[in-house]
Amino acid sequence: MTMYGWMGKVLRIDLSKGKVSVEDLDSGKAKNYVGGRGLGVKYLYDEIDPAIDAYDPGNKLLFVTGPLTGTGAPAANRYVVVTKSPLTGAIANSTAAGDFACSLKYAGYDLVIVEGKAKKPVYLWIDDDKVELREANALWGLDTEETIKAVIAATSPRAKVACIGPAGEKLVRYACVMNDAGRAAGRSGVGAVMGSKNLKAVAVRGSKGVKVADRQAFYRAMESAYKTLDYDYVEEFHQTGTPGVLTLVHEFGVLPTRNFQTGVNDYAEKISGETLADTLLVRRRMGMGCPGCPVACGRVTKVTDSDFAGRGFGPEYETIGMFGSNCGVDNLSAIAKANFICNQVGMDTISAGNSIASAMEMYERGLIPEKDIGFPLEFGDAQAMVRLTEMIGRREGFGDVLAEGSYRMGEKYGTTECFMGVKKQEFPSYDGRGLQGMGLGFATGPRGACHIRGEAQDLDLYGVMGWRITRDRGLEVIDPLRYDDKPPLVKDVQDWFCMIDSCGMCNFMFFLLVDEDQMRDLIEAATGIDMGGYPGFMKTGERIFNLETLFNRRAGITSKDDTLPKRMLEEPMPDGPAKGMVVHLAEMLPEYYELRGWDKEGNITPEKRAELGLD
After folding, report:
1. Conformation bin of residue 18: beta by default, left when phi > 0, alpha when psi is -120 to 50
2. How far apart are CA 102 and CA 94, in angstroms?
3. Cα angle value 23/27/29 (rounded, 5°)
4. Rounded to 5 degrees, what are φ and ψ at 365?
């Protein structure tokens, strides 16, 4: 059967047996779960016991593209790494952009399923239909940049590589999978699972095209999408990248500062996107941007300060927030250096920076003795922050403790009060007390605290949204401090993002494509599948979200885990525009569960499972 949009093939790699096989993509799963995030969780849910330990060889690691990946649709350049998270014990699905995603699609595969564990380090080389496992002993211990260069030298100048660094090898619970020299499948520890399997890298060269079902309709949908792009916003993000958000977040009083003790500080301008552009920027990534992207948000930076010298990609906004204000650090050179280190060792900057901030607070409160750390660890100490980042990536000294994540660090020292996150995953750079929708989104996210699995913060921050979720509810302006209107918005935006992550598009399309009709038109023209209009489109996203939740329930994560730290719920914001606010989770959660069709305890009802075809 000919498939359009999808390549129609699954590549299965059994590392324990050293066996490679190819099978047909399940067309029913593709229709109901689209690709990327949705298709990945469906295959994982059907093939493993979610209660398994994340490092057990029985856990599987999936690399999944979407039906729009590599088609030329705007910013359709994403793949998703899906597995069980070693950080949370929940579903993990981390996305990354770049040439690797398109090359994997062009090689002819929608999914690569990695199972078992190799006896010795290996890497996977995919050259269209030719697939082989190669010995990687000489690569073990190399950083990500060194690994990518070495694998390309051993395979092809046209190869695209996704790999782990020392953090993945040493099972840092928030290790990344890195590709294209600076792009990361960043959160939830997917790189640690890859390391547990002794898989150092996946290299791919693809030469096949992607067939779409209706070429003329696809071109019309693309033309419509590009005409609707908000080019002022495109230019803004091209100039400053994601760091440009920092000033706005601080103006709202929700920039995490000193481990979320407040949301404002007196040095935000020193670490802003504008300051980054004026001081450390070498060049914007135009010409090096991700395939098909009109934004080219990435940037190359260079630090000449002798204490923090280095060069590389980033840092992004989340990185600046976590290593910067949340650690009380106002030194942009130090923040960039910590980011360079994370990229080299292959480690999530959000969890790393947040964990260091947690340790700083615990140190200042006398909960962690200096002898355990080896040096003072006070807020604002840029040298200590960078030093500890290096230690985490290689599990040296106290870095070995923080490599387990800040929740487990708290358990070790007798209290998790300083852990700022959900389901053992650390918060990104937004304080939910001043963004009520974000607070609800954090609490209910299947993979733990996350800002890109339903960008509720953008509903709150940007206030006016022109897309259907707000229009259908008669909303023109959203007040970030209101909470009575947030449950339906959060529920819908979570479902909508399931579709973005599954079709293969970058989540910037949330801003740039102002109407979901265009995304649906692109998917339908590419695949030939009738999605059933807006209701069917959203129902598919809802199906994916519910399956992720079912995975978590089978893994032992219950609705009791849909909560927030005491600081968010009981300690009012002390300063700034959100002063006096807590997250009104208790008021929002019952309505949210009702809107999801779950029972009052947050369990998915048999009726909802039947409605979504999950039985």
Report:
1. left
2. 16
3. 100
4. -90, 0
Q: Looking at the domain assignment, is residue 23 inside a domain?
A: yes
Q: CA-CA distances (angstroms) from residue 222 to 69, 70, 238, 515, 554?
A: 14, 13, 21, 13, 40
pLDDT tens digits, one per residue of 556-568: 999 999 999 999 9
Query: Are residues 413 and 470 both part of a single domain?
Result: no
Domain boundary residue, one of 394, 422, 450: 422
User: Measured in whole angstroms, how far is the alpha carbon of residue 235 from the centre of its chain?
Assistant: 24
413 with 546, same domain: the answer is: no
CATH number at residue 482: 1.10.599.10
HSE, side-chain direction, 13 A CA sphere, residue 311: 5
* Beta partners for residue 96, in sequence order: 79
Same domain flag for 155 and 61: yes
The total of structural domains in the chain comes to 3
Which residues in 280-308 are b (16+ Cβ under 10 Å) and which e? Answer: bbeebbeebbbbbbbbbbbbbbbbeeeeb
Q: Is the pTM of this model over 0.90?
A: yes
CATH number at residue 83: 3.60.9.10
* pLDDT class of 145 with cuts at 50, 70, 90: very high
Tokens 């200096």 -> residue: 370
Domain contains 232: no
214 domain residue, yes or no: no
277: left (phi over 0), alpha (psi -120 to 50) or beta: alpha
Antiparallel, parallel or unpaired: β 111-115 and 9-14: parallel
Q: Are residues 497 and 589 in the same domain?
A: yes
Lowest mean pLDDT among 15-24, 91-100, 255-264, 282-291: 282-291
